[in-house]
């Protein structure tokens, strides 16, 4: 239980940073923070995130911001689901006394 409480603060800091970055349109910062959120989780609970969008030419660069927005949306859901799963698994272990 204490580990969950300890990790709650970094996750909240990451969440605040992600929201601020997305509001400012800085998707690169949001991506870095989402990757950091994953690293706080134990390895077996880390989600498999999609490849980060990149542009190979000018035409793709015009669509890059939209691709990064979609990546952030999908990845944030995956990270939050993984955090919830990890917390619930730990609560179950505490309830069972293991």
Task: Walk me through this protein's architecture.
The chain has three helices and no strands. The protein is mainly alpha-helical. It has one domain (2-96). Helix 2 (27-40) packs parallel to helix 3. It is elongated, with a radius of gyration of 16 Å.
State the domain count: 1
Name the helix and strand elements from N-terminus to C-terminus, one letter apiece.
Answer: HHH
* Beta-strand percentage range: under 5%
Largest sheet: none
List segments where confidence is low: pLDDT < 50 over at least 5 consecutive residues. none
Query: What is the distance, rounded to the nearest whole angstrom, between the alpha carbons of the first and last residues?
Result: 12 Å
- The total count of helices amounts to 3
Structural class by sheet pairing and helices: mainly alpha
- Helix content estimate: over 70%
Detail the topology: elements first, then pairings.
Blueprint: H1 2-24, H2 27-40, H3 58-96
Helix pairs in contact: 1-2, 2-3
For this entry, give a set of tags:
single chain; 98 residues; mainly alpha
Précis, in short:
By secondary structure, the protein is an all-alpha fold. It has three helices and no strands. The two termini are 12 Å apart.
